[in-house]
Each structure stands twice: as C-alpha cells, then as structure tokens.
Design goal:
Strand order of the largest sheet: 1-2-3-4-5-6-7-10
Structural class: alpha/beta
CATH topology: TIM Barrel
Largest sheet: 8 strands, parallel, barrel
Helix content: 25-40%
Distance between the termini: 8 Å
Order of helices and strands: EHHEHEHEHHEHEHEEEHEH
Strand content: 15-25%
Number of helices: 10
CATH architecture: Alpha-Beta Barrel
Shape: globular
C-alpha cells in the first residue's frame, strides 16, 4: 500500500473554476514539492492540474525531481475521448505508473455518457492498455451506483485491464453511504481517493450539509476501509475543505488539513 497526495488534496490552492482564485495558484512542481516535504510516496495529477498543460521538457524535469525524491507520479484525466485517453496513457508510461484514473464525465456539462456509452468508447482501447501493462481505474461518482461501476469494470475486463478508483464520498450523491460503496468496490480497487467528512444538520433543522474534514477527524472509519483494500492499492488523500472567509484563509486551512491528514495516515500506511 502506498500513501500519496494529489491535485485534489489542494483544490483551492490549484484554483476552483468560477470561485475566488489564489494569487499564485499551485502548479505541478509546487505539488511535487509539497509531496516531498510531507514525505509521501506518490503524487497524482488529475484534471484540475492536468499534465496535458506541461511541455515534454517540463514533464521530464518533473519526473527527474520525483525520481530523486523517491516519489511515484500517477496520472488521471476526465472524459472518454479516445485521443485524450491515448495521450494520458502515454503519460502513464512516461512516468512509469501502472494505471490511469478516469472520471468518465467530460469537462463539458453536456459530456455525460451512460454506462453503455462508456463501455462502447473504452472497449476499443483495452488492448492498448493490456499491451502497456496499464490498467484503467474508473472513478465512482454520483451519476452511477456502486453496482453500475462494477458492471462497467466487469465489461471492460476486471483485473487485467480495468479496476476502480474508489472515492469514499462521491456516491453520497447517488444516495449511497460510504460503507456499502466500499464493500462493493473494494475488491476492484486500484486507487483509493480517501476523503473524510462530517454531516451536520442545518441551523433551521431542515436538511443536512456534508463538509470535508482532515482524515481521522470525521465520520469515516478509515481503518475499516484500509483493511478491505487490496495490498497493492495506491491511497491518495483528497479533500473537500469548506471555503472560509477568503481564498487566502481557505488555502491555509486546506494546507493544515493536508498536514493533519497525512500525519494521521502515516502510521496506518507505513
């Protein structure tokens, strides 16, 4: 089991579209520097800090720095466009990783394929992944139940070609609790997106809010989840840190959450 951070460990510092922006957004090199200071074993770049925006020279420099620090770079993307998937597969091979995390909804709000469309789009690419020794890690999220996700993974070739990027909170939007989602998806999991949370009732008592908290300080049974994970899983800290009074305060709070989460997780993932 490997512990790491990713670009969604610091979404506010990277910059959330349509929200207040930091004066100096975190870039790919700053994220790697943060991973080095935290002493983690991997760093994952996904769609909010895409490797597509780096030149070949910058990617080579990033890999060299990561290799020197003993950190594995992992790759993620969103969408099911074949050309973009092939590009990201080349990044996975370039950085010596063994899986590609895919969030199947595209960047466009209209790019929301159903499960049959996702299978249809990804199936022609499975031989290329198998030949490269790279697996597809489909991320669960609110448009699909956990069983829907299993169905797609099984259709694509569970084990050899496809598996799951298991996010611990995404399926609240599908009306599913974390415990049942973990139980269903754990056997297929390649990458664990570990987010902790706290559910609180609104002041007027009519409804609830779900907010992110440092891992180990919320309602997630982290040790029970880790006990169900395959030994080879890569664990990536992600966060839903609530927005504070301003973007600078929020980024400081986000960084504190990262530090506290990693301090909690290190003894559990040696």
């Amino acid at each position: 089991m490997r512990l790491g951070i990713g670009s969604f460990s610091y979404p506010w510092a990277v910059g959330v579209p349509g929200q207040p922006q930091p004066a100096a957004p975190m870039n790919a090199f700053a994220l790697l520097e943060a991973a080095t200071k935290l002493g983690v074993q991997s760093v994952q770049y996904v769609d909010n800090l895409s490797l597509m925006h780096l030149s070949a020279r910058d990617r080579a420099e990033l890999k060299s720095l990561a290799d020197d620090a003993g950190i594995q770079i992992e790759v993620g993307m969103r969408g099911t466009d074949a050309s973009e998937i092939r590009m990201h597969l080349s990044f996975v091979k370039e950085f010596g990783s063994n899986y590609l995390r895919i969030m199947t909804d595209g960047v466009s709000p209209n790019d929301t394929p159903g499960s049959d469309q996702i299978i249809e789009r990804l199936m022609p690419l499975t031989d290329e992944f198998e030949d490269a020794g790279v697996r597809i890690a489909l991320e669960n999220f609110d448009r699909f139940t956990a069983y829907d996700t299993v169905g797609m993974v099984e259709a694509l070739g569970a084990g050899d070609v496809a598996g799951v990027c298991l996010d611990t909170v995404n399926n609240f939007g599908a009306g599913e609790g974390w415990a049942s989602v973990v139980e269903t998806l754990a056997p297929y999991t390649i990458n664990l997106h570990l987010k902790d949370f706290r559910v609180t009732r609104k002041a007027h008592r009519l409804g609830f809010e779900i907010n992110g908290v440092p891992v180990g300080q919320g309602q997630l049974d982290v040790q029970a989840i880790l006990a169900q994970m395959p030994e080879s899983v890569s664990v990536t800290l992600e966060q839903w840190t609530p927005f504070d009074t301003d973007i600078d305060t929020t980024c400081r709070e986000e960084a504190r959450h990262v530090a506290e989460s990693i301090a909690y997780l290190k003894p559990l993932i040696p």
